[in-house]
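@channel anyone free to eyeball this complex?
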Amino acid sequence: MRFVDEFRDADKARALSAKIASLCEPGRHYKFMEVCGGHTHTIYKHGLEDYLPETIELVHGPGCPVCVIPMGRVDDAIHIASQPGVLMTSFGDMMRVPGGNGNFFDSNAEGTNIRMVYSPLDALKLARANPDQHVVFMAIGFETTAPSTAMTVLRAAAEDVRNFSVFCNHVTIIPAIKAILDSPDLRLDGFIGPGHVSTIIGCRPYEFIARDYRKPVVVAGFEPLDILQSIYMLLRQLDAGRAEVENQYSRVVPWNGNTVALRAINETMQLRPYFEWRGLGFISHSALRVRQSYAAFDAERLFDLPGVRVADPKACQCGEVLKGVLKPWECKVFGTACTPETPIGTCMVSPEGACAAYYNFGRFSRRRVTEVSIG
Amino acid sequence: MIDREQQVLDRIDRARRRAPKVREERITLSHGSGGKATHTLIEAVFLDAFRNRMLEPLEDAARLRVGAARLALTTDSYVVSPLFFPGGDIGDLAVNGTVNDLAVSGAVPLYLTAGFILEEGFPVADLVRIVASMRAAAEAAGVHIVTGDTKVVQRGKADGCYVNTSGVGLIANGVELGAALAKPGDAILVSGPIGEHGVTIMLARGELDIDADLASDTAAVNGLVATLLAATPGVHALRDATRGGVATILNEVAKAAQVSVVVDEGAVPVKAEVRGACELLGIDPLYVACEGRFVAVVDGAEVDTALAALRAHPLGEQAAVIGRVTEAPAGLVLLNTAFGGTRIVDLLVGDPLPRIC
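replying in thread with the prediction:
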């Protein structure tokens, strides 16, 4: 298949793998963080670590939209969905995220109507088709998905759709990266930068990482060769003693981002003073809410929310996993009490969550499999 | 570090062997998706209540001995939405599905029953159309629909039309099939390209704004199975890859026989349209339902004969060898990715959920 197979070519991967190995300093251990959960998914789904020397460790970052939603926000969404005449919509990944009292599937079994949509525009379509119901879209995600929410609000306003609103949970990536850089627990050698966020915000926002923290950043695409090449580019920077922001994903990411999309976000949303991230706690200026001028489309203003902060279960170590301090399997409940069927933490829910990726794709000993010699 | 990781993996392995338990208080859609929740429900509720020697293998059909004859008996309910889709409708699906469950049990399908649950207000013309395609499918498969039942429920209490079919077939002497019979050295084959039915249905729902030239693969495979069994005495197991797709079948084989199944991603036949739609939706074709394809586990020494027999039949022209059975790690399905890495293929937790970015 064109535009897919070229980026999964095993011969090119072997060639890159050799170049990567040749750049590794003997005896040095490298730790690179892939910020985005989409990268984590690709790494495990394609078995990319088979191409890396054992001295390169990939650390999974916080860029998983579903993983960072705190339990209280899930409860708030269920509260909205429980109001008479409400049809709640969200992306499929949200359906199994546990709140303080069950997930959306459980809530539907109790009588709410929470449906999965593929785009906020589909939710708007539902609102037009069901004028007797109020359709709420639970918006989640980083700058990647915020523009589509913004465009939907703008369209709803232009078409004067009165039975539609957004429960906004959009977050921004830079404060999360900064929180990790300032965290004392972690020593990183560089970042595989989030590709799809960067299609919107561009590469400039990462310059402080190179300048102030002296860490190289390579914005990367989502096919396995993209990631291998990014690792090679990071190693080349380290080898030359450089710390810069480089764009591996230039076929999609413009250096200055997408100004039209940024304008739409800015028109409809504003930064919150602070927002709770699951596992990471409150981070200031790290999330978006709907602006007062679009209050008619803001579910937070239209509905009285309990807004109760629900503490994560004690056993759950999602925060440490999201910060990259713990490997998924190092969490005490990984794979026993916490599984994709009965997740305790969000990292086990989304296909982009590090725990789910490791459990579903990587739950075997590479060494042992190599010993029985497959392939 | 590797040792510590291995200890965790062993602990998880023990946790996975524990008797399954339904934790939910109510049925959710996940219980019907064919993945882990379905398995848990079947084992913890149904198998626990009905347990007997014939039910226990949880194969596609029960194998019964009546006098000197060996029978296969199966039942299946059909609730597909939409009722009519490119390549078929709920009618031929209901006939082919039950015929296939019998065929992959090694039986020659003979007789079917048909039960209808109809919603008040359902158009008679649609019912006539469904019944006509059931008749055509039964004729094509060489089976007879010999008894039936009709119920009508109030508007809103069902979604148009549900169909249940049951079937019996006769198992010939010497045919012994079962997932537990897979052994190291066996080859894994699929009878054709996978995932067409599932993707067709998803697109036919019209929620996705994706156009693709695709039709359901719904077909009766009893002719193809007969051809394969006649040519290859070393067939150890057959399964039709319906809900949960090929990945689920392979997991069932790995678990039942306590072997490992290793699949080569590049060898799995998938139409470009199916791959494209799956890439866009973030789902893996290995989990997408087929309604006219099966997985065969065949003695490694007879793989060429089996492949030639399948390919000689019009339904099996694109059959392929996709992997093999090995000893360890027992109970796991491993995939050698087209990219050149290795990963696990596990049972799905629920419906394939699309990724959002």
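from a first look: Residues 224-239 of chain A form the longest helix (16 residues).
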